[in-house]
Amino acid sequence: MTTEDEPTVPPEGEQSELPSEGEEVEPPREREEAEPTSSPAAGDGDDDGGSSSGDGEGDDEPRQRPLYYNLVSHIGALIVVLGAILILLSLLAHVTSGGSNPYVGIFTYVIFPTFVLAGVVTILMGMRWEAGRRRRAEALKFLPYPRIDLNDTRQRRIVLYLIVGGTVVSTLLVWASYQGFHYTESVTFCGQVCHVPMQPEFTAYQDSPHARVPCVACHVGQGASWYVRSKLSGARQLFAVLTHSYETPIPTPVAHLRPARETCEKCHWPGKFSGAALLQLPHYRYNETNDAEQISLNLKIGGGNPAHGKSQGIHWHMVVNNTITFAATDKKLQAIPWVKVRHANGNEEVYVEKGTKLSKGALAKLPRHSMDCMDCHNRPAHDFKNPDFRVDQALLRGQIPTDLPWIKKVAVDSVFRKYDGTQDADAGIRSYIERFYAQKYPRLLQQRKKDIERTIKVVVSIYDHGVFPEMKVDWRTYPVNIGHRDWPGCFRCHDGKHMTKSGKVLPNDCASTCHTMPERGKVTPLGQPPAEPFPEWHPWKMPKEHLDIKGHDTVMCFQCHASGKRPARECKDCHEK
Asked: Sheet harboring 368-370: ordered strands across?
């Protein structure tokens, strides 16, 4: 205990409240004045205070409204909810429809998820705007950003809602992004979403041997670099579709194709090519009885790998042991005046087209191309078959009766006629065939009405699969470099005009280089060549007096057949009067 005369020593670290020597002592105030009682007005905004801590018990300060309490964020939340509902509805429609509608897919995995993402961004932008507004408003005494205190029950609930809602939205966006990635890689997206510009390519693709190979397997391939390049190119193409600024017809992307060794050779291995294959090509004559014939020949597939025998045949060209470089004067690589061959032993030969008007300097400036698969197999999945071929196939399969008089000629001629559009073509083909039989065979028209009706439908289908007026595409639009019957193809180089300085000519004989001499005969079972071929393999022989005319001695196959057109039989068929 201490007495009144003994001063109390404050604990260490605390400042003494006793006055120092010489300091005036202020008289004590009443307790009521020194300790004012708290009132409801206390803390009414005299300090900058934010949200209170604790459970809020006894806190009389007004609560700060969350940043998302603004019109912009509310609109964003509405967009998110609406987008989520639309995704669920479109997903249901996509499942129930079996995924057959391409536009349901693009809305489900691309457009509606974009709405959700846009809504989330709008919410965040609204919160950012609200925070800025609070900082600028001097009258507001709330902090511009919330003070998070998980000891506050109300704040804990808000954080929980944000975590649950954010997880749901994030999961939805991740799922939609994953599905959207696969959807944009699908055949449906590539061929059907851009309906008008891609309709010709998609139709030809469905008829091709590659109909079960995804578009991206050839047009994109593996690797991130080509994936990014394809998406950038796709964005440009999408803009062209939206603005209707795409070319008609769509040009073949020769300059932008990925090398075949990085795409085609994932399935087709050039080093393993060898041997030969029997080709049996059915053909029906343009006469009243539609005589059936068959052209048979052995195609020398060969290869360039000595491990499988002598390097020979068509695939001698492949970049295995031999390398071929060429220069073309056009974008479609159809006119080739210069070819260089580098053999396995290192020797090189340069062939220049005889009679070319280009100087050595001009030839040297032409861009060089290293030959690969696509220089011959340039339409592996988008080949538009000509009417002559398609009608032959329809006759062979029994889709068109072979005993209808002149049906081969009438069917092909009806497709070759010029029409203003698809509907006009459908009506015109019908009118042409019915009018022919009404004039030539009126009784047959009545007796075989069903067969003629079925034939008309097949011929209309042939037209619809080969002619696309909106895109200005038909079987004559894109050159096909395989073979040389309807297009220059092999004869771009093997035309007998490409030779070295020493006079060596690139071979172009029909019986030894790429295939055996064709044989024409009756249609035989698969794998069986004609037992008694006709004396002349060609349906008709050009008279000798024609061959003696300058220029006629070097007439190539494609110059008469002209992409499926019925070949000329008389002078007037080629030469105008």
From this structure: 368-370, 323-327, 338-342, 348-353, 498-499
